[in-house]
């Protein structure tokens, strides 16, 4: 690949995003190594050539893993200063558990999220060799189709609060040798990470010992692997098309899966629907095959009144009646002391639920100042036009799962229950075209 073609690879990936007019900031993940330095240089040329108003920034994460980490940061700072590019630097502390590669990656992405805002673009320097190495590693772990697809040129990165950034990897069709040639042609200065020679790390083992042997026997292996990845991507797109149709049939209005409908499919399709549902909700890592088997045996196949739950990572799958629910365990228990003294209808974030009022088209809640308390099984409630009943009975009739009932907001005034949001308005507190109380449950802390 010539120098022009490397530039074209960036233009092809980046120019459509810039031309849409929504992108204001472009961040380059900058370790100081050859890949990221070449990428920063390419992005600098891109902004200058296209006279773009997009702001170009570097973003560096100092993991502190190497004795040279501070020197690398100084090199990056000097490079950005010489090229007049603003730099954001993060120094992170890594937890001493699990794979150090995985821990470092998670810390790096957490740092990225702290710097990025809605519609920002984060450009990373992964190339074709990285793509092959990632696929080989995941193949050894027994990954399925979605895992083997490794990295995409573009994907979204959830930032919380309904904000998303875009991650762009424009050099996935570029080999390491081509990047090295480009750096030499432009006399770019970069740092050498000493850990890249340590074969105790899986990626280095593949890069330094296994893949050179494959290349000796199959010189075109990169192109062959890329062709396989392209074919797998087409098959994945086809699979997702049909899974989306199946999910729409199985998904209930409360975001749970209808088990009776799910079980109409063969078990292997049920598993794919559940995986797709979890991916749709950005739940990673997905359950392993062994964990899926447990979910089917102990949760889905359980009696409707058993209320089983399966925990993994920070989430769990729970059954209530005919529904399979996805729960974020970190949202429970809710701090019952963290409630406002008075609620006047404003948007209120109660950890796992958002509460807000809007004008009712017909009869709603009388506008007033209300106190919020949490549901109590013995509370006496008199829904508008209906007999009095306990809170527990009301929630059972409304098909509310047991784990939500203790954390359900209840509006009171003058010592009486005025409304149970999403369920009923009570006698004595209604008004034509009053408030409609909107209740939105959250799966994640966003």
UniProtKB/TrEMBL annotation:
Q: Which CDD domains match?
A: TilS_N
Q: Which GO terms describe its biological process?
A: tRNA modification
Q: Which domain of life is it from?
A: Bacteria
Q: Which Pfam families match?
A: ATP_bind_3, TilS, TilS_C
Entry keywords, A to Z: ATP-binding, Cytoplasm, Ligase, Nucleotide-binding, tRNA processing
The EC designation for this entry is: 6.3.4.19
Q: Which reactions fall under this protein's catalytic activity?
A: cytidine(34) in tRNA(Ile2) + L-lysine + ATP = lysidine(34) in tRNA(Ile2) + AMP + diphosphate + H(+)
Domain Lysidine-tRNA(Ile) synthetase C-terminal per the UniProt entry, residue ranges: 370-439
From the Swiss-Prot or TrEMBL record, state where the protein is found: Cytoplasm
Any GO CC annotation of this UniProt entry: cytoplasm
Keyword Cytoplasm annotated: yes
Q: Please list the residues that bind ATP.
A: 31-36
Q: Report the domain remarks.
A: The N-terminal region contains the highly conserved SGGXDS motif, predicted to be a P-loop motif involved in ATP binding.
UniProt lists the family membership as follows: Belongs to the tRNA(Ile)-lysidine synthase family.
Described by its record, this protein's role is as follows:
Ligates lysine onto the cytidine present at position 34 of the AUA codon-specific tRNA(Ile) that contains the anticodon CAU, in an ATP-dependent manner. Cytidine is converted to lysidine, thus changing the amino acid specificity of the tRNA from methionine to isoleucine.
Instruction: Supply the name of the protein.
Output: tRNA(Ile)-lysidine synthase
Species the sequence originates in: Bermanella marisrubri
